[in-house]
Every structure is written in structure tokens, then in C-alpha cells.
Amino acid sequence: MPIGMQASAPARVERLMINLDTMHPMMCGWDECDRHARTPYQVRVHEHVGRCNSEQAQYGRHSHYVFCSERHLLYWVTASGANAHHTAARNQGRIYGQLPEGLRNRI
Ligand SMILES: [Zn+2]
Ligand SMILES: [Zn+2]
User: At what angle are helices 81-90 and 70-79 packed, to 10 degrees?
Assistant: First the structure.
């Protein structure tokens, strides 16, 4: 599992995400949310081809996104990249605010 994906950590300790440059708490990455991001809810996006330790990966990078809750993390994941395409098809073009199929009743 890549560093930064802590979804399956046995004991969830929810701490605020602190921006180490400004020492201010980081905000949730979901557009409509103004709450602080918390440590269990992070997504690392691979903007490179191949595996992280492969030669091609030198030319790409990683982006980190942080959120206040699992719900907003999932909103974002669902609305992003390849997932957005499928979600839009499933919901007649509505992308934002939709949870992935099968998770709707779980959270
Ligand atoms: Zn990577
Ligand atoms: Zn949020």
C-alpha cells in the first residue's frame, strides 16, 4: 500500500493535517467544505506512468489531497479522473456529491 493511504490502519487516530510551511491546519479538499482536514483521510495521486520506483516515475510526480472525512474523500475520488467518467454515466451527468456505488448506505 502506498504511503499516505491509511484507510486500513487498525487504530484511527484523527489528527489535524498541518501545512509544514505555514504551520496552519490544512483545509478539506472538497470544494464546498470549509472544515479542517484530518490525517486518516488522505489520497495520493500518481501522476506518472509505471510503478513508483520505476524509471518512468522520475518524470512524473505525486499529488496529495486531504479531507475532513471519509465522505468528502469519497466524493472527491468519485468526481476525479477516470472515476468521474463512470460516475457521470451512472448518474445522468451529475458528478458532484455522488458516492460510489455500494457505499451509499454504508456511511
Ligand atoms: Zn507513484
Ligand atoms: Zn470536508
Answer: 90
